[in-house]
């Protein structure tokens, strides 16, 4: 197992009279060797905070991050050693690259910081080649403004690869790219997994990305994983009402297809409701009978944290839900 988090929580202190904010509020998650896990959720659910916690940029308020079974040490020396194995790829490649650095120096920065100066030219050459920038020599002296968005993202990925990590945490890696370029970057991540055995956590709000690239999917809402499993389990047979609402926007081809519109306010980590944190926006709960509401007690009964090795959903209403609609035709055409 490459990376694991146990009962992870990140709480930001009160600010401006508001808070505290429970950005991550009890998460168990595992990423296996050579596995790609997609972390899906809308803005404000805590997925970017979780991503930054995995690479040691944010120290958890509770719980542990374990790499190869060893808890993460937050001393400067230990974090520097850890980041040789775990690299973060950010959403905006233009913002991630220093406009005053050429491509060679941008890719070489990580090895230089870690004292890996021997064969630096070969390291940069190999990293750019793996990232699909060929021939590498043509890019050495270019600056970010001379590159396309897709080329910039490849340079960012090459900078991560220069340290030969075992895990990449990619936070919305294709969100700022044109549709024609997104597929190229996703193919690159798959090729890196196949050729190098690289593991990856890919953070996204795009379910199509999960279908095309991931082995497993974890759906996050208001600081918690509310459903997880293989791609087929989650995307073809969703069980949680939130996952179903996310999937409902994908056209199914059926004549009666209608997307589910979530009511209420978007997730607010400073005001987590009692009971199931999704129940104020849950259409299934809103339409339930008085007897079902009393039996499910979604508005007052806390849900347990989903264990990392369990495929399923954290929902009081599972026993009340009708069988899920099969959306396989929609994904086959995605």
TrEMBL record:
<keyword id="KW-0813">Transport</keyword>
<dbReference type="InterPro" id="IPR017871">
    <property type="entry name" value="ABC_transporter-like_CS"/>
</dbReference>
<feature type="domain" description="ABC transporter">
    <location>
        <begin position="3"/>
        <end position="247"/>
    </location>
</feature>
<dbReference type="Pfam" id="PF08352">
    <property type="entry name" value="oligo_HPY"/>
</dbReference>
<dbReference type="Pfam" id="PF00005">
    <property type="entry name" value="ABC_tran"/>
</dbReference>
<dbReference type="GO" id="GO:0005524">
    <property type="term" value="F:ATP binding"/>
</dbReference>
<dbReference type="InterPro" id="IPR013563">
    <property type="entry name" value="Oligopep_ABC_C"/>
</dbReference>
<dbReference type="InterPro" id="IPR003439">
    <property type="entry name" value="ABC_transporter-like_ATP-bd"/>
</dbReference>
<dbReference type="InterPro" id="IPR027417">
    <property type="entry name" value="P-loop_NTPase"/>
</dbReference>
<protein>
    <submittedName>
        <fullName>ABC transporter ATP-binding protein</fullName>
    </submittedName>
</protein>
<keyword id="KW-0547">Nucleotide-binding</keyword>
<dbReference type="InterPro" id="IPR050319">
    <property type="entry name" value="ABC_transp_ATP-bind"/>
</dbReference>
<keyword id="KW-0067">ATP-binding</keyword>
<comment type="similarity">
    <text>Belongs to the ABC transporter superfamily.</text>
</comment>
<dbReference type="InterPro" id="IPR003593">
    <property type="entry name" value="AAA+_ATPase"/>
</dbReference>
